[in-house]
Design a protein that fits this description.
Layout: H1 6-25, H2 36-43, H3 47-51, H4 55-58, E1 78-82, H5 88-97, E2 102-107, H6 110-122, E3 128-132, E4 145-151, H7 160-170, E5 171-184, H8 190-193, H9 196-199, E6 207-208, H10 209-218, E7 222-230, H11 239-248, E8 251-258
Parallel strand pairs: 1-2, 1-4, 2-3, 4-5, 5-6
Antiparallel strand pairs: 5-8, 7-8
């Protein structure tokens, strides 16, 4: 991985926040990546799940896969959603874990958190707690979470090893991971990785798939495996995005892992 300076990291965070503020506040806008209900349907969300939550959550969906294919969340579980956005996955998790469970919704973008709060109120979801934080520094106690879920977010994180270590730390022994994310099949150039604006495009921050899975093993996880793969960027309206993704073998995957 290419080293990211503190100044570059700051600019990456600013670019990502600007992009997802637009997704939250202008859901009708056409982005270079799929969004909204069409994106949910593209990556495999069942209509029944989407119909059970507010449409204002689904309209700003910007995930890249269907992490619930892992089937990790059970009634009464404590869940952490990293990069919770406007709430599609948070609200589905809230229904799956039930009133006896809890969902921590972590996001660094204020516009997304505000929209999630409104959506949680619409859904009368009292078991959701929204956290303003970043994936590299999760403000939860160690061994406090049963399942960590994330969708299209960790590729945007500058220090992936630190974020994976944080996921491992907050999970209880036996806790599980269900993640959808962007990966590539060949290394992205140093010049691209060091351009903060390109990180928000969801491709240049991505790791090679095998390195991504191995990093989960390296921080202590077992049973690390890919479950699904999707040519996600083929649905982009941008020819440039489709071409860049194709040149790097960029695609989305759903993976699982367990903390021993």
């Amino acid at each position: 991985m290419v080293a990211i300076t503190s100044l570059q990291r700051e600019h990456i965070i600013e670019s990502v926040q600007a992009m997802y503020t637009e997704v939250a506040s202008m859901p009708e806008k056409v982005f270079h990546f799929p969004t909204g209900r069409p994106a949910c349907e593209l990556v495999g969300y069942p209509a029944l799940q989407l119909d059970a939550i507010p449409a204002t959550a689904v309209e700003s969906f910007a995930g890249v896969g269907y992490p619930f294919a892992v089937d990790a969340i059970k009634n009464g579980h404590v869940i952490l959603d990293i990069g919770s956005g406007s709430g599609t996955d948070v609200l589905i998790s809230s229904l799956l874990t039930g009133p006896e469970g809890k969902v921590y919704a972590l996001d660094m973008t204020a516009a997304m958190r505000e929209k999630l709060q409104a959506n949680a109120e619409k859904a009368s979801a009292a078991n959701i707690e929204i956290i303003a934080a970043e994936a590299e520094d999760i403000p939860l106690p160690s061994a406090s979470v049963d399942v960590v879920t994330s969708n299209g977010v960790l590729n945007l994180v500058p220090d992936k090893k630190k974020s994976f270590q944080e996921i491992f730390r907050v999970l209880k022994p036996g806790g599980r991971v269900q993640i959808a994310d962007i990966v590539v099949s060949q290394e992205v150039s140093a010049a691209c990785r060091q351009n903060p604006k390109l990180w928000a495009e969801c491709i240049v921050g991505a790791m090679e798939k095998e390195d991504y899975l191995q990093l989960f093993r390296d921080v202590g996880f077992k049973d690390v495996a890919q479950l699904r793969q999707l040519n996600y960027f083929s649905a982009s309206v941008s020819k440039e995005t489709r071409d860049v993704a194709a040149s790097l073998g960029a695609h989305s995957m759903v993976m699982k892992a367990t903390k021993p």
